[in-house]
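FW: tagging you since you asked about this chain on Friday. Here's the raw sequence from the shared folder, copied in full. Didn't touch anything.
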Amino acid sequence: MDRNHDESGSWKPTATLEALRFRAGCLRAVREFFHARDVLEVETPVASSSGTVDLWIDSFEVKSHLRHQSMWLQTSPEFHMKRLLAAGSGPIWQMSRVFRDEGSGRWHQNEFSMIEWYRPGWSLRDLCAEVEDLVRELVPSLPKARWMSFREAFVERAGVDPFSDPIAKIRQAVEETSAVVPALGAVDRDGWLDLLLVSRVEPGLGEDQPVFLWGYPPSRAALARIGDDQGNPVAMRAEFYWKGVELTNAYDELVDPAEQLARFQEEHRARLGMNKPTPPIDHGLVEALRHGMPAGAGVALGFDRLVALAMGADSIAEVIAFAEN
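HL: got it, structure written out here
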């Protein structure tokens, strides 16, 4: 059948009008929340000549036929927002459309809505308290969140110490849970930890009480500062889980330009080595850090996921007007 004349109903929205009205109310509440706290709403580009080189996040590449070059759709507004911080913006936030080249599913879409905000001078704990405040605006009955370290979560939920146990023990824990185990190298500790995180740690995490999972291995620092947990170096980042769903990723932001450039270069080489599409390094962010971005904390929150959980929906497709199958 000609798709243009498809009478199956595939043209219809995936969300009901009632759900879309609920979503609009959530967006209004978010805007009022930040307005009341004097956080400036900003807008930054969706497409850029550079992009993230994070090994675990894949960007969409688009071609400019006029400029004869590639552009990259943003996976997060982070880089441009940090340039605003370096320019003296003070606390800022935005609701943005972001794009990630990954499979769609119950809690994933290639295109989705993200709330991102930054608090100069704030600690990671301060910002995460504000995350709770924002979520509670939409879900007044939200219980107080528990702070759980990466190590605690793995020991408690998988019986493995992610920092000290041998890779063989981590692999065994994965194999006991997963019917299909990908072929990973015997020295790929991060890979096995990721599989164990997905198969044993994340499912049901924060089901009854929200959880801030913090203190990731330094190799998972991304754009976060390296700190200390009981004498062990850890990435100063925290992810907020509620009802088994990851809602946010918060950083005590890295502001050292040399360290940031070194991480970008390492990730860039790793992507090339894996034959992954590799955007150019964003040197604009590095220059902004050299100029002097204030120390502070920042966070990204999946708005579609939050709306779905607040409404009691089974998937984000129920709160997105036209979700991809």
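FW: The first strand starts at residue 40 and ends at 41.
HL: agreed, and The chain has one domain: 3-145+209-319.
FW: great, closing this out.
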